[in-house]
Amino acid sequence: MSDITMSEIAAQYSIGIDLGTTHCVLSYIDLTDESDQAAKQLFAIPQLSAPGSVTEKFQLPSFVYQAHAEEISQDQTPLPWDGENTALVGDVARQLGLKTPIRLVSSAKSWLSHATVSPHDAILPFSSPDEVEKISPVTATSQYLNHLAAAWNDAHPDAPISEQDVTITIPASFDPAARNLTAQAAQDLNLKHLNLLEEPQAAVYSWLEACGDEWRDQVNVGDTILVVDIGGGTTDLSLISVEESEGNLTLSRVAVGEHILLGGDNMDLALAYRLKMKLMQEGKQLQPWQIQAITHACRDAKEQLLLDNDIEAMPIVIPSRGSKLIAGTMQTELTREEVHQTILDGFFPATAVTDMPQQNTRTALTQIGLPYAQDAAITKHIAHFLNKQHGALETDAGDFIKPTAVLFNGGVFKSDAISTKLMGIINDWLITADVEEEATLLTGIDLDLAVANGACYHGYAKHGKGVRIKGGLASSYYVGVESSMPAIPGFEPPLEAVCIAPFGLEEGSNVDVTTHQFGLVVGQPVKFKFFGSTVRRDDVVGTHLDFWQPEDLEQLPDIEVSLETSSRNSGDVVPVSLSVTVTEVGTLKIEAIADDSDEAWEIELTVRQ
Amino acid sequence: MNFDLTNITELPAGPDAAHIALFALTLILLLITLVRGGKKTVEIEKIVEKEVPVEIEKIVEVIKHVDVEKIVEIEKFVEIKAPLQEASPAAACQLLSLLQNEARFVDFIQEDLTGATDEQIGAAARIIHTGSKKVINEYFTFTPIRTEEEESQVTVAEGFNPSEIKLIGNVLGSAPYRGILVHQGWKISNVNLPKLAQGHNANIVAAAEVEL
Hints:
Strand content of chain A: 25-35%
Distance between the termini of chain B: 35 Å
Oligomer: heterodimer
Largest sheet of chain B: 2 strands, antiparallel
Number of helices of chain A: 14
Number of strands of chain A: 28
Shape of chain B: extended
Number of helices of chain B: 7
Largest sheet of chain A: 6 strands, mixed
Number of strands of chain B: 5
Largest interface: A-B, 34 and 34 residues
CATH superfamily of the largest domain in chain A: ATPase, nucleotide binding domain
Shape of chain A: globular
Strand order of the largest sheet of chain B: 1-4
Number of domains of chain A: 3
Distance between the termini of chain A: 48 Å
CATH topology of the largest domain in chain A: Nucleotidyltransferase, domain 5
């Protein structure tokens, strides 16, 4: 009986976790609050700010520091809660890592969706000496989540996080494997109610919450909202369409963009290198640690110089490392013109909607690392997205999607100069395409906190207290099969693709691929080539493609199944069909189901080449 | 969250740097006077036990009365019938450490400025101002004691708190007093200093750094 009572306890809070590339934020709403406008709150996260010193901050920097055995004694890492606080997470990690980067685990989130490295391999800190103990991107992610959970539980002993309604945000561009990995990283939390939510959607939820009922006055049926979310390390794009259902306005996420590793940090770094060049011309050489100091100073100076004011230049001071402050300090300045050239012209150039991002063919000796975007022009990436998704709407959009409203999110947009320029460029595209009305800019969200706020509002809306955005799969998925044809020496048989999950398949639904049967060999791992398409919206389960445009289908990491069964002999061939479920959490589950028995094997999504 | 932009362009460069430093130092001294209680370190108890055993009781009494969480409520201290209170060295050292880490405060004060150009001092002042502002804003919440415009007529009611409002000039007559508000005053309404680990040596303001 007790089990039943346990599961009947309803969540008291909706918790939203912005699991960011550079920092995490947690906000929450009390679901038992019956008033119309339940107040969301930010959670102050206790964390070490230096060895031996604990402070509370609203942001938990997403870093782990792998300290040397003699670096920090055990009694200098206390946290308010019991348990082994072995991992140095948060502010202290970031601080220590500034001076010892070889021991700093960073950007774990970007590694989760990396195409060539297994996220379960202990590879971080990346390319640091062997002596430094390494952890996997999944472990790092779970350490951030575990810290947040321990802090929450310590502050709310009567409402443990495992019982609450928890929404964790992910980039809209995360592939199914990266989504599953995020859910896996949360496993230690034993969450009863976990949801994954795409960050641009979270920004829209935050906008809905900020507007209250008035959102219906700001958009109309047939509108298309372009969401541009520029985080520290990534740019994430989505399209939300405003539809009508039973007389009510509804929102539906109809397209998501590609994974673009380009964000606000790149802008600060670009400015720092510009100043480095300037100092070099004056005959001053900079050490790596000075570059860091400049990058930090540029961040603050940039925000000032991009505001609408008459400041022409901001001084940049690089303090010495030693105790002599006067003698070793270097000074330069960052001018308004430099910022405008580097940021506005470099990252937001006024390009045509037909200008696509440049893809340089990489040289053969490319170092394995994060696949940073090669073209820094964010406007071109947006143009590419609008072109590529031209078929996303029910109505014919022509060559590219013409958004009627735009929502910006991310600290970068605190600068009016950036949002005004980008908005102007988008409207120029519309005017060139003879669209009569300009797109409207949707405002009212907190650019730094919208993702966390939106995530907790999402959990709140799920309880019938607000508007929900219809999501579902933002891609259709395919497995590759070799076509049966007579062997031609020297040629691999051409690959064909079978659709196993259609576009828009909603959370909680399941489809079986009945048109194709596969033979799996017991005891041998079998790999499938796996593809996703964000543009082939009309393919149904079983659709067989023997030809496609290379840009239509993106090859994802192979998927693998290993048939371990005691009821069959090793080497036997088992006929199976595939079954695909989109879980309530929002992850993809692919199973191989035996046709001649009721056995089923889960197909792993995380195999990397 | 502290997304405060530090508008350092408004800061005059040059010799005013010294004023900033002086201001910060005054502030620290003020805080040292105000901040009581804090963590009662084992060190202090031992010293007291050895040297002045008679006074143990009194000191313990004081510590009992001081509400550690509400160190700002100065009124409470006034009521306590104790001759003098020991300022907590740990809290003072911690604040200096924060100012050193963020603003290079101790480095600057320890430096000999003779012969340094105004330009050099100006550059250092920016570091000190930006960093100190970050520390002050992050760990302290200031509210003005009087919200009226400075240089305007104000009334000081009967039973005012003399530690909050200081009457100056022709201090004559009886309440209510009418006068010009010269300085609005500052009151720390919240202190949120980092908590320290047991046995953390707060005397180390900045560790020596050795690059390998």
